[in-house]
Description:
The chain has 8 helices and 7 strands, in the order H-E-H-E-E-H-E-H-E-H-E-H-H-H-E. The protein is α/β, with parallel strands linked by helices.
Amino acid sequence: MTDDQLFSVAGKVIAVTGGSSGLGLHMVRVLASQGAHVVSISRSNESDSLCPSGGEVMEIIADVTKAEEIVQAFDEAEQRMGPITALFNNAGVAHMARALETTPDMFAHIFSVNVAGAFFTAQEVARRMIKRGQAGTIVNTTSILADRPQKGTAAYAMSKACIAQMTKALALEWAGHNIRVNAIAPGWFPTRINEIQLGGPAGGYIKGSNPMRRLGEMQDLDGAILMLASDASRYMTGTVITIDGGHRL
């Protein structure tokens, strides 16, 4: 097998939740540019430039906190694209607030999307793969804040720690079905979810405290995205790949 074949996602049907903005939008573009048939699932169609030249992207509006919408989204996706072979379980929200200022509504919203939404989306995809006797891969999005929280991120960091542990638990349960479950833990990448934080005084501190003295750039994720979606990771499961320029050190 050549290197091109090893990392190839050409012809694979790959779903990305939270695919209309931020890291999810980049995942959609990278995968489609490499020949994957991509299903972008998000609560709203916020992007007018999902599909790169030559790529194929199907957009579905769905809320991952609603079980019936998750089922309907994958029914629709598979009717048009065929069986899902990979899921990038990326939908997420954040409320930057210190622990004493975090309200029950903030906490419930974060855990509803980031934890319950991710779990039941993975569950639905795995059920379909197992029913067909089909191998597959699920890639969750956690964060370096799961291991190295900062002030003002308590609820968000807790939710991402849940995802890191969920990745291991699901990998253990589904390995016998040849379903791999791994995760990407990005460091500080400028997106809409953190633009206020990175745009203020904290942004300079975060950049300066990184051993590489910079924030992440979207293309820094590409290698991990393609590896985890392809046969290059066929003997990897339960692994969290940190992409942070050494920020956690």
